[in-house]
């Protein structure tokens, strides 16, 4: 790996070009920050240097502060690992220097990268450069002066929008707003930036210290009104994320008491936010998502992904149509956005989607995705085996044979074929063209090449692929099924949407495969019996279910279902003495989620996932677990494994084996070992991995 370094070259024109180099995005590692200080000190000392141009190597200015430092802070609870960049570097060294600085910006300037650029006295950018302050998405806020300089350069309303939504803008928009002083081609970027810096020296261009600008802030009363509205919006939309209110408080400090006072408060509050539970959770998710692309014996053995150009989807139901849409639309629109495809040609490409009634045209395809979920090809093992046996005979020997099943063990699906090394699960989430998670499900015989190929397809269509082992149900389904089946809380509208065929079929599979581990609710069968309806009639499309669906109005609970729910409670034996149990909101949350943690422990123990953080990403992207909680396993370690274990043990004695703690949870809890801590693989996990 290339080392992080800062270099300086002084030209005959007297301009020192300081270049940050830390591939791939020139992150502001501690070495880069130290290097900037060192090179600036040298430039200030040298009589042959009149002005400075700051830029990044490799077509990128900087992607922001190196958040690996945050992980170190979280492990040690020591904020001294954070650099003093805001005042020491960007105010004292750059902005208040006696020699002007111009930022030559290309590719991206995000977070701390943009903050470095804003401390310079001008910003020259290449076309389509990405500019933004996304720190709030990580549980913190801009910490190198961004809360003060951005409002002074683009106006308060736009600055608040960019920070609160972590929304980046193009250099073209930045030019219109005043964040960028000029846009020039990449080839001309350094040349124009050098000339601009010398023009500042010669007073042909203004020497602008952005921290001292106030024109775009408006009056104090106007600014406070804008911040008041923003606070109300934050309380309504992100009540659990403290960084939003904190950021607005810091912006207000600078407006009322001046930019420098705002910087001092920014540093203080930033250091507090870094240590917050929210930041710990969001930063963990950030790294966990990137770690999913590292799969032992797949991504580290020198394989290169094959080109998958043509895909067949079997099944035209909700999932099949969604997957087809995801495969086509994302790729085509991506080319249009990049200017590599006109809109007319995009429409022509979309018209290449073709429907067929048999497998005869599968001869030259690269991948088949059999779509079982949501009533297209029902969850039926013999039927799936028949489908794969048939398509194996027609498809080429290199064709990937994938299924979207979320219930059936793939080792059974491919049992009747002679191509078990090509059998793989491609488990999308509904709606498939919207939901970001893709579980790549490998069997005991799936080849590393096929796994890598499907991971690559997933990334190409903007999904987050997570590689998991095959079993009845998948990690995401195994975890979220507990939320669906604990009767105190259920995703009833989801069941209305998908129809009850899937619920009944999956319920039977789970009850058989995981005896004593699923909550067997009689509710669906009671609905069918008491309503006198056939299975297919109960769904949103027919206006029947837990909710009443009428055109032009919002779904509303169906009161006729309430007596059926009461009967289900009685039969399920969750009303000791015939009366509903009395529980607090906190107990409801724990009775829903602690069994999910318990199931996660079994998944970890059996080696179904590569690492605990993969389950965190699966829970966040697949079952909408709050990302600011860090994912299901991360959250469980924060709550405390021993507390979870004792609660489950108590409920198991009161309500049955559904709550019985797994051996993995018991061992970790009683020995004080975090659930996420790696362990020597058990025989079961060895066989899967």
From TrEMBL:
UniProt cross-references to InterPro entries, sorted A to Z: 3-OHacyl-CoA_DH_NAD-bd, 6-PGluconate_DH-like_C_sf, ClpP/crotonase-like_dom_sf, Enoyl-CoA_hyd/isom_CS, Enoyl-CoA_hydra/iso, NAD(P)-bd_dom_sf
Subcellular location: Peroxisome
Catalytic activity: (3S)-3-hydroxybutanoyl-CoA = (3R)-3-hydroxybutanoyl-CoA; a (3E)-enoyl-CoA = a 4-saturated (2E)-enoyl-CoA; a (3Z)-enoyl-CoA = a 4-saturated (2E)-enoyl-CoA; a 4-saturated-(3S)-3-hydroxyacyl-CoA = a (3E)-enoyl-CoA + H2O
Family stated for the protein in its record: In the central section; belongs to the 3-hydroxyacyl-CoA dehydrogenase family. In the N-terminal section; belongs to the enoyl-CoA hydratase/isomerase family.
Chief place of localization: other
3-hydroxyacyl-CoA dehydrogenase NAD binding domain segment(s): 326-470
Presence of keyword Transmembrane: no
Molecular function in Gene Ontology: 3-hydroxybutyryl-CoA epimerase activity; delta(3)-delta(2)-enoyl-CoA isomerase activity; enoyl-CoA hydratase activity; NAD+ binding; oxidoreductase activity
Keywords: Fatty acid metabolism, Isomerase, Lipid metabolism, Lyase, Multifunctional enzyme, NAD, Oxidoreductase, Peroxisome
Cited Pfam families: 3HCDH_N (PF02737), ECH_1 (PF00378)
Gene Ontology CC annotations of this record: peroxisome
Biological source species: Vitis vinifera
Protein name: Peroxisomal fatty acid beta-oxidation multifunctional protein AIM1
């Amino acid at each position: 790996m290339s080392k992080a370094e800062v270099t300086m070259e002084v030209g005959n024109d007297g301009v020192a070009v300081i270049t940050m180099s830390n591939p791939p995005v020139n992150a502001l590692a501690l070495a880069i920050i130290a290097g900037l200080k060192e090179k600036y000190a040298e430039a200030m000392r040298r009589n042959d240097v009149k002005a400075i141009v700051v830029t990044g190597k490799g077509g990128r200015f900087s992607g922001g502060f190196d958040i690996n430092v945050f992980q170190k802070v979280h492990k040690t609870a020591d904020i001294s690992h954070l650099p003093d960049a805001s005042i020491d570097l960007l105010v004292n060294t750059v902005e208040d220097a006696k020699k002007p600085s111009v930022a030559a910006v290309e590719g991206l300037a995000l977070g701390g990268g943009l903050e470095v650029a804003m401390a310079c006295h001008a910003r020259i950018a290449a076309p389509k450069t990405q500019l933004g302050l996304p720190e709030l998405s990580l549980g913190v806020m801009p910490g190198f002066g961004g809360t003060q300089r951005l409002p002074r350069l683009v106006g308060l309303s736009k600055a608040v929008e960019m920070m609160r939504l972590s929304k980046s803008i193009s250099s073209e928009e930045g030019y219109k707003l005043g964040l960028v002083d000029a846009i020039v081609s990449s080839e001309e970027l350094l040349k124009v930036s050098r000339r601009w810096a010398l023009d500042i020296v010669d007073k042909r261009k203004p020497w602008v210290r952005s921290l001292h600008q106030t024109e775009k802030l408006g009056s104090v009363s106007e600014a406070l009104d804008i911040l008041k509205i923003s606070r109300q919006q934050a309380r309504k939309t992100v009540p659990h994320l403290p960084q939003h209110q904190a950021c607005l408080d810091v912006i207000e400090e600078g407006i009322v008491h001046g930019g420098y006072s705002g910087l001092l408060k920014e540093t203080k509050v930033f250091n507090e936010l870094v240590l917050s539970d929210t930041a710990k959770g969001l930063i963990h998710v950030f790294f966990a998502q990137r770690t999913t692309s590292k799969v032992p014996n797949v991504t580290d053995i020198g394989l290169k992904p094959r080109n998958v150009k043509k895909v067949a989807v079997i099944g035209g139901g909700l999932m099949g149509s969604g997957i087809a849409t995801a495969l086509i639309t994302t790729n085509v629109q991506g080319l249009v956005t990049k200017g590599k495809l006109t809109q007319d040609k995009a429409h022509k490409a979309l018209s290449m989607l073709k429907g067929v009634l048999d497998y005869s045209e599968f001869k030259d395809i690269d991948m088949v995705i059999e779509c079982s979920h949501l009533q297209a090809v029902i969850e039926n093992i013999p039927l799936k085996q028949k489908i794969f046996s048939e398509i194996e005979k027609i498809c080429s020997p290199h064709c990937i044979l994938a299924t979207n099943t979320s219930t059936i063990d793939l080792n059974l699906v491919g049992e009747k074929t002679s191509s078990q090394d090509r059998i793989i699960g491609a488990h999308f989430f509904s709606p498939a063209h919207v939901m970001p998670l893709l579980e790549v499900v490998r069997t005991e015989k799936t080849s590393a090449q096929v796994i890598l190929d499907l991971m690559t397809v997933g990334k190409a269509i903007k999904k987050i692929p997570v590689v998991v082992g095959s079993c009845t149900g998948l990690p995401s389904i195994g975890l979220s099924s507990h939320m669906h089946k604990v009767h105190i809380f259920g995703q009833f509208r989801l069941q209305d949407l998908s129809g009850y065929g899937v619920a009944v079929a999956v319920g039977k599979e789970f009850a058989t495969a995981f005896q004593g581990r699923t909550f067997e609710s009689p509710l669906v069968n009671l609905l069918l019996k008491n309503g006198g309806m056939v299975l297919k009639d109960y769904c949103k499309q027919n206006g029947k279910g837990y909710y009443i669906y009428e055109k032009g109005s919002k779904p509303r609970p169906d009161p006729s279902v309430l007596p059926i729910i009461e009967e289900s409670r009685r039969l399920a034996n969750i009303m000791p003495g015939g009366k509903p149990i009395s529980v607090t909101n906190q107990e409801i949350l724990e009775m829903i989620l602690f069994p999910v943690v318990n199931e996660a422990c079994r998944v970890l123990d059996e080696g179904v996932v590569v690492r605990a953080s993969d389950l965190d990403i699966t829970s966040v992207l697949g079952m909408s677990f709050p990302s600011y909680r860090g994912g299901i396993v991360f959250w469980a370690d924060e709550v405390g494994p021993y507390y979870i274990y004792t609660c489950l043990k108590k409920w198991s004695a009161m309500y049955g084996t559904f709550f019985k703690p797994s051996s993995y949870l018991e061992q970790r809890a009683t020995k004080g070992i975090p659930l996420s801590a790696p362990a020597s693989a058990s025989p079961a996990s060895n066989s899967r991995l």
